[in-house]
Design a protein that fits this description.
Blueprint: E1 21-29, H1 34-51, E2 86-92, H2 93-96, E3 135-141, H3 144-157, E4 162-170, E5 172-173, H4 202-208, E6 224-233, H5 235-238, H6 243-250, H7 287-290, E7 302-303, E8 306-312, E9 318-328, H8 335-345, E10 352-362
Antiparallel strand pairs: 1-3, 1-4, 2-3, 2-10, 5-8, 6-9, 6-10, 7-9, 8-9
Helix pairs in contact: 1-3
Bound molecules: protoporphyrin IX containing FE.
Length: 378
């Protein structure tokens, strides 16, 4: 269970074949001191470079330092392999300008136009305390302990500079981001990630995943914008819905994952095909029709979400759903129009509720030892 290179043109954890586990954390910056923040980002980068290679967060390690001092690694990943760990950083809008418009760290002029606050969508039930944030780190790995260890150590290093605003564990990927992967299933039991942007789609990634200097924010060249949405599923209601209805909602069959009217998972959907009753095989309000690039001005997303179950809600129901994450070159042209069409008409809405939202500017990769997270920004 090997190591994914940390250094590179783009950050790892975006087109990296989606690992099985997630620990996502959003942070608030609690210092006003720009130098402290930059110094922490430098320390985070060094720790991330080490942890992704299966090493301790600090150079002395969990047990190699002075016995009188707290160790510079918390120790719970000792003896575990790198497990494909990737750590991906993102910057939120509030880092550039707070709610009152104050330029907290002298970077307001670098706020990318693409980081425009997401609009309110019909049906949104967002909880502010688990939305937004100044910074985020997406930790993905094939071992949950490795992902949790990484976030915990970053939080430890950031003591006094940042505090965790909220975090989310995910236990099963709901997307493939490479054609070498089989398509996993979400908690509604459907294959998810069939028609996703993938590592192998070089031309599409160039056009729709990576930001460019000419998009407006030069420091974001080679980066990508991440939208996170915690989407609660009312699985109890879903589980009392007939198979035919479930399949009609997505526009795909549940076993194979084929578009309705077709036989195989990767067959192209035919949105004009009509059944014996004269009705479209894929309903007008089916999820895969409303989300399809043909009906959204050609917009694609690189979805990289995870299943979650966070215990129960005290009302006899599981607190379960999909932690949706999607990367793209410009959310104003991609996530926003797609989510607008879904929020307006998707029959899936009866079974889901968006409760948290985040929008993040994830810069290009760290190129080597002299470079660090946020160097191009500050
Ligand atoms: C496709 C599930 C929310 C965008 C799909 C598919 C499933 C699915 C089963 C078909 C397989 C595939 O092509 O991947 C869900 C569930 C959701 C959810 C259970 C919520 C709990 C969203 C949201 C967006 C979105 C919020 C974006 C705003 C897409 C896109 C496709 C897709 C772009 C591919 C459409 C195509 O090109 O055929 N989703 N989805 N989904 N979904 Fe979702």
């Amino acid at each position: 269970d090997g190591a994914v290179p940390f250094f590179g043109e783009h950050q790892a954890g975006i087109v990296t074949p989606a690992q099985d586990r997630l620990h996502f954390a959003a942070f608030d910056v609690i210092t006003k001191d720009r130098a402290k923040l930059v110094e922490m980002l430098r320390e985070w980068t060094a720790a991330a470079a080490r942890m992704t290679q299966g090493r301790d967060a600090g150079t002395l390690g969990a047990v190699g330092g002075q016995p009188e001092a707290p160790p510079d690694d918390t120790g719970e990943a000792l003896g575990l392999p790198p497990s494909g760990l990737t750590l991906t950083i993102g910057f939120g809008r509030s880092l550039f300008r707070d709610a009152a418009g104050v330029d907290r760290f002298g970077i307001a002029d670098r706020l990318p136009a693409a980081l425009e606050a997401l609009p309110h969508f019909p049906g949104d039930a967002l909880r502010p305390e688990i939305s937004d944030g100044d910074l985020c780190v997406q930790a993905c790995a094939n071992d949950p302990q490795v992902a949790v260890h990484a976030i915990r150590n970053l939080a430890r290093i950031g003591f006094g500079v940042v505090s965790i605003r909220y975090s989310q564990l995910g236990f099963g990927r709901t997307s493939s981001t490479s054609r070498t992967q089989t398509t996993p299933r979400n908690l509604m039991g459907f294959k998810d990630g069939t028609r996703n942007m993938k590592l192998e789609d070089a031309e599409l990634l160039r056009e729709q995943l990576w930001a460019r200097a000419e998009d407006g924010a030069a420091w974001m060249a080679g980066g990508s914008y991440l939208v996170t949405r915690r989407i609660r599923m009312t699985v109890e209601t879903w589980d009392r819905t007939s198979l035919t209805e479930q399949e009609a909602i997505f526009g795909r069959d549940k076993g194979e994952g084929a578009p309705l009217g077709k036989a195989k998972e990767f067959d192209e959907p035919d949105f004009d095909a009509k059944g014996a009753d004269g009705q479209p095989m894929i309903a007008k309000e089916a999820h895969i029709r409303l989300a399809h690039p043909d009906f959204n001005n050609g917009a694609h997303l690189l979805r990289r979400g995870y299943n979650f179950v966070d215990g129960t809600d005290g009302l006899g129901r599981l607190d379960a759903g999909l932690f949706f994450m999607a990367y793209q070159r410009d959310p104003r042209k991609q996530f926003v129009p797609v989510q607008r069409s879904l929020a307006r008409a998707d029959v899936l809405n009866e079974y889901i509720r968006h409760v948290s939202s985040g929008l993040w500017a994830c810069p290009a990769g760290v190129t080597g030892d002299g470079d660090h997270w946020g160097r191009a920004l500050f």
